[in-house]
Amino acid sequence: MSGETDKDHEGRKGPKRRKSAHKGTRTRARIAAVEVLYRLDLLEDENPTTVIMEVITRRQLAGTAADYLNELAKKTLKQQMHIDAMIERSLTDWRLVRLSYVDRAILRLAACEMLYFAQIPPKVSIDEAVELARFYGTEGSAR
User: Fold this and answer.
1) What is an annotated GO biological process for this record, any one (predicted)?
2) Residue 89: CB partners within 8 Å, gap ≥ 6?
3) What distance in Å separates the CA atoms of residue 93 and residue 20, rounded to the nearest whole number?
4) CATH, range 19-134
5) How much is the CA Rg of the chain, to the nearest whole Å?
């Protein structure tokens, strides 16, 4: 972080402000959750708990990030039929199975947050999903 600067409202340079650790923690957990959901969708016979633990270990997640990943991934998987039906109804001239594995994982994750995590404002879930789609999705995913 040393050497990084931001300008204040008067144009003076100062230390770069960090985003809240809490937000960064959830973002890291969401990225890991996309990986878990992608992998479980692609390789249907894997054990979800094993995959979650492998991702936590490989990504070196701990504490709040690991807890949020675990909670988010398990809730998404538990409610996947309901989430998929909701997404399917929202697609126009398109089927969920035609979307890429990554795009499906991102949509499922965002829908789960909006439906079952009341403490997360829907705007945050949508913004995070768009950013994930820009970075990890296929061309045009973020639209």
Assistant:
1) DNA-templated transcription termination
2) none
3) 40
4) 1.10.940.10
5) 17
Q: What is the tens place of the pLDDT at every residue in 52-109? A: 999 999 999 999 999 999 999 999 999 999 999 999 999 888 889 999 999 999 999 9
Q: Where are the domains of the chain?
A: 19-134
β-bridge pairing 5-7 and 13-15: antiparallel
Q: CA angle 68-102-139, nearest 5°? A: 130
Distance CA 78, CA 89 (A): 19
Could you tell me which residues come within 8 angstroms of residue 65 by beta carbon, excluding any fewer than 6 positions away? 25, 26, 28, 29, 32
Q: For a pLDDT cut of 70, what percent of the chain falls above it?
A: 81
